[in-house]
Amino acid sequence: MSPSQVTVFCPGHISGYFKPVITGDPKTSGSCGGGIVINSGVTVVATRAEETTIQVLKTSRDTSQVVSDNSPVIKHLMQNLGLTASIKTFCTLPLSSGYGLSAAALLATVHAVNQLFDLGLSPEKCAMQAHQVEVAFRTGLGDVAACQGGGWVVRKGPGIMAEILRYKDDQTIHAITLSPLKTESVLSSPEMMNRITDAFPKTDPDTLIGFFACSRSFAEASGLISPDIEKVLIDCDANNIPVSMTMLGNGIFALGERAKDLLNRYGETYSLQISHTGPRIMEVLP
Ligand SMILES: Nc1ncnc2c1ncn2[C@@H]1O[C@H](COP(=O)(O)OP(=O)(O)OP(=O)(O)O)[C@@H](O)[C@H]1O
Ligand SMILES: CC(C)(CO)[C@@H](O)C(=O)[O-]
Question: Which family does it belong to (predicted)?
Fold first, then answer.
């Protein structure tokens, strides 16, 4: 019997450095770069319905509040797939803050409706559907590719079929957000894209500390660091805490337990683990 409701979780992604690769075709466009797939992301509950309805919910202290009753990217995805369903997305991290939540919401939705309607799409086909919409709407470039699996990652090429190196690590990452930053506003500026491309590191990291160093050099050269971010970076430097700016959000991510108390002085701090997996089916109701 076909299910009536499917729940899927997809991890989010903090991008540390990236280089846009735009080919004119969303399938082959995307970015190279490095980032961390995190254990907090988006849970999607997809239920059979005659019409598509979307609710974006933010959860804090066990209660969820609707923050929007639309998500243009999910609406577009459902149209591309030719399906209707009720889609509810739940997240605890803040939106528009460089946690790759649009990608997580898209990827979780495709996996949920794939199961709900027994579409038989492979994980790669699911990722391709999500990636195409994400890139076309400029809500992200490399996040869907990263979120297909776990680890801190180095994406060697653009798109979801490119080689992706995934490294396990159990150290805690701490992150704060100072204010929202719409990904699309940066990705749609040719001037910013040129500067970002020039800032891309010459070599790939193979340790987590190396990844933080690449991310930090990139952030400095990209011109994206605001004075309020700079202040926190300098404070972390003074305490020998590896740190950089969340791409693309007006936030900071730092490595290790000592970062927590320091970041707490600047805002609400999220303690994150490096995810071991990509999207996971959590519940299927008959
Ligand atoms: N949790 C979510 N559920 C459904 N749609 C979302 C969610 N997060 C983002 N979106 C969609 O993505 C669009 C772009 O959002 P935004 O650029 O703020 O994405 P983001 O992924 O939160 O940011 P970032 O990529 O910097 O983490 C939003 O207008 C919304 O349509
Ligand atoms: C463009 C981006 C920084 C937005 O989060 C990310 O998608 C990436 O690394 O390509």
Answer: Belongs to the GHMP kinase family. PoK subfamily.
